[in-house]
Automatic annotation (TrEMBL):
Belongs to the GTP-binding elongation factor family. LepA subfamily. It is a peripheral membrane protein. It comes from Novosphingobium arvoryzae. GO terms for cellular component: plasma membrane. GTP binds at residues 17-22, 134-137. The gene is lepA. Its main location: membrane. Its EC number is 3.6.5.n1. This is Elongation factor 4. The keyword Protein biosynthesis applies. Required for accurate and efficient protein synthesis under certain stress conditions. May act as a fidelity factor of the translation reaction, by catalyzing a one-codon backward translocation of tRNAs on improperly translocated ribosomes. Back-translocation proceeds from a post-translocation (POST) complex to a pre-translocation (PRE) complex, thus giving elongation factor G a second chance to translocate the tRNAs correctly. Binds to ribosomes in a GTP-dependent manner.
Length: 605
């Protein structure tokens, strides 16, 4: 039994790349969780894709044993949180499981938007926040300036900030001492009915679904029959343990403790983040506050390039879903693309991750249709149907315009933080995307600007554009603020006079013509020449709003190579053949796979 006074639960909040994972690894190493050799790879970012993209997707928690300066053995539970806006709810649950946080700020970069958003959340959870200024080894490091920024911008006292270089291992013990001294221990009642928060869940091929819990009151043990209050299911606990980061089996988890349980659960969808776990007998009657069902916000179709891969796609998607409850899918068929799936994601990064895993881990060539947000449409009464409301996930299902009374679209509030030299271009970008500025403040040489923006203007390439016009310096964070009426229309794209469903999209009437023109210009470059002339048109209803033509091909491509150079000729033919495999036929036109996403990038340069 661990005394509550010996426990500290904390998370690390940081902007992407400020060194959260490196610091976490150092803390593990210092407290002896792993040997030098085992430290070779970053421990907390344990998925391949995470490593390559350098981001943390799944929250993980490790228990560190640390003997404090007072000689007491402390149990420090360090919770790693995801670093991207798409996974904001997981972050909020992790924060709710802790009493404090380390705020890691890069000594050369200073405070950035993501830092702010997470700090405010942490403050909302009444956390004790310990500022850590990392990367003090960098020549451009300026700890004093960053301290001043933390005080000025966030309003936290930074005079006791811990200075570290996670990379070279400087200041690590100071961090541990600050955790013990400054972060309060948890409170809880061992004799009260069990209440444990489900912080995270993931699928492990050996253990099945693993659930990360934070016990609030009571005790959780092997053999206990428990109930998930929001999920409404009952399970028998078969394992209790923690990660050090290696798996350590335990007899129990008491109040204030964080660890994992397993209960022969097959799908993560049954273990919803934020749910309350209690005992079946004499359990708690009220659930913990803050449970929210996460809903996908961005939808798109995924189709196999080769129709014969459909079964493989179904299987692979099913497997991914086992491990990712926030991703949804249902079967879809399209006249042009055949059978595929309509999938829902938390955001564009989430979409890209799933798409990448399907192509990399499952070796599938996919066509992704235009991502779309969910619109709410009020339909008028017709001869055969009553007036009613529908949620539109797919532009292909856009109803007859004469029946549409009103369309509402989701809006977000975005907070952008940028050095002021890029402000002009950023304001223009937001303005072009129908943004409404709600706030603009300057601190030092930096600007913080808030905009309300329609989500459909953000889902394609807003983030990429923002990064490119600010050379990576601007940071972006957003939250959803509900639905608003919009003057929206469906824009269809016709290739050789045939509509291509996968390219149709819902756009605001005011920007439709410009978007249509861009799409046509891009497609003209992306679709190879054929033996005949191909018109490309953008249309709203029956009205063509933009048009380009791909001229007919005159010669055989190999005619360019003089007779002698056989190898070059072979290469070309080979290339053509390969290209063919990645194309879809539309009527008699072949459209390369890249065209589907590339055409959607609005590219305003
Ligand atoms: N020079 C220097 N580089 C560091 C230090 N700490 C981390 N880095 C580097 O900064 C980069 C980002 O570090 P990570 O620990 O992956 O950052 P992170 O905050 O976990 O990033 P996300 O997981 O994407 O949120 C890596 O290339 C690290 O090697 C430091 O103290 N000094």
């Amino acid at each position: 039994m661990t005394d509550l006074a010996q426990i500290r639960n904390f998370s690390i909040i940081a902007h992407i790349d400020h060194g959260k994972s490196t610091l976490a690894d150092r803390l593990i190493q210092f407290t002896g969780g792993l040997s030098e050799r085992e430290m070779s790879a970053q421990v907390l970012d344990n998925m391949d894709i995470e490593k390559e993209r350098g981001i943390t997707i799944k929250a993980q928690t490790v228990r560190l044993k640390y003997k404090g300066k007072d000689g007491v053995d402390y149990e420090l539970n360090l919770m790693d949180t995801p670093g991207h806006v798409d996974f904001a709810y997981e972050v909020s649950r992790s924060l709710a499981a802790c009493e404090g946080a380390l705020l890691v700020v890069d000594a050369a970069q200073g405070v950035e938007a993501q830092t702010l958003a997470n700090v405010y959340q942490s403050i909302e959870h009444d956390h004790e926040i310990v500022p850590v200024i990392n990367k003090i080894d960098l020549p451009a490091a300026d700890a004093e300036k960053v301290k001043a920024e933390i005080e000025e911008i966030i309003g936290l006292d930074a005079s006791d900030a811990v200075l570290t270089s996670a990379k070279s291992g400087i200041g690590i013990e100071d961090v541990l001492d600050a955790v013990v001294a400054r972060i309060p221990p948890p409170t809880g009642d061992r004799t009260a009915p069990l209440k444990a928060m489900l912080v995270d869940s993931w699928y492990d091929p050996y253990l099945g679904v693993v659930i990360l819990v934070r016990v609030i009151d009571g005790v959780i043990k092997k053999g206990l029959q428990v109930k998930f209050m929001a999920g409404g299911t009952e399970h028998l606990i078969d394992r209790v343990g923690c990660f050090t980061p290696k798996i350590e089996h335990l007899d129990e988890l008491g109040p204030g403790q964080i660890g994992f349980i397993t209960a022969q659960i097959k799908e993560v969808a049954q273990a919803k983040v934020g749910d309350t776990i209690t005992t079946v007998k004499q359990g708690a009657t009220t659930a913990l506050p803050g449970f929210k069902e996460v809903q996908p916000v961005v939808f798109c179709g995924l189709f196999p390039v080769d129709a014969a891969d459909f079964e493989k796609l179904r299987e692979s998607i099913g497997k991914l879903r086992l491990n990712d409850a926030s991703f949804s899918f249902e079967m879809e068929s399209s006249a042009a693309l055949g059978f595929g799936f309509r999938c829902g994601f938390l955001g564009l990064l989430h979409l890209e991750i799933i798409q990448e895993r399907l192509s990399r881990e499952y070796d599938l060539d996919l066509i992704t249709t235009a991502p779309s947000v969910v619109y709410r449409i009020q339909l008028r009464k017709s001869k055969t149907d009553d007036a009613r409301e529908i949620m539109l996930h797919n532009p292909a299902d856009y109803p007859d315009p004469s029946r549409i009374e009103q369309i509402d679209e989701p809006w977000i509030k975005a907070t952008i933080y940028t050095p002021d030299e890029y402000l002009g271009s950023i304001l223009k970008l937001c303005q072009d995307r129908r943004g409404i500025q709600t706030d603009l403040t300057y601190v030092g040489g930096r600007a913080q600007v808030s905009y309300e923006l329609p989500l459909n203007e953000v889902v394609f390439d807003f983030y990429d554009r923002l990064k490119s016009i600010s050379r990576g310096y601007a940071s972006f964070d957003y939250e959803q603020i509900g639905l608003r009426e919009g003057d929206l229309v469906k824009m269809s794209i016709l290739v050789n006079n045939e509509p291509v469903d996968a390219l149709s999209m819902i756009v605001h009437r005011g920007v439709a013509e410009e978007r249509g023109r861009h799409m046509c210009e891009r497609l003209k470059d992306l679709i190879p020449r054929h033996l005949f002339k191909i018109p490309i048109q953008a249309a709203i209803g029956g009205k063509v709003i933009a048009r380009e033509t791909i001229a007919a091909m005159r010669k055989d491509v190999t005619a360019k190579c003089y007779g002698g150079d056989i190898s070059r000729k072979k290469k070309l033919l080979e290339k053509q053949k390969k290209g063919k495999a990645r194309m879809r036929e539309y009527g008699n036109v072949q459209i390369p796979q890249e065209a589907f996403i590339a055409a959607l990038r609005m590219g305003e340069e």
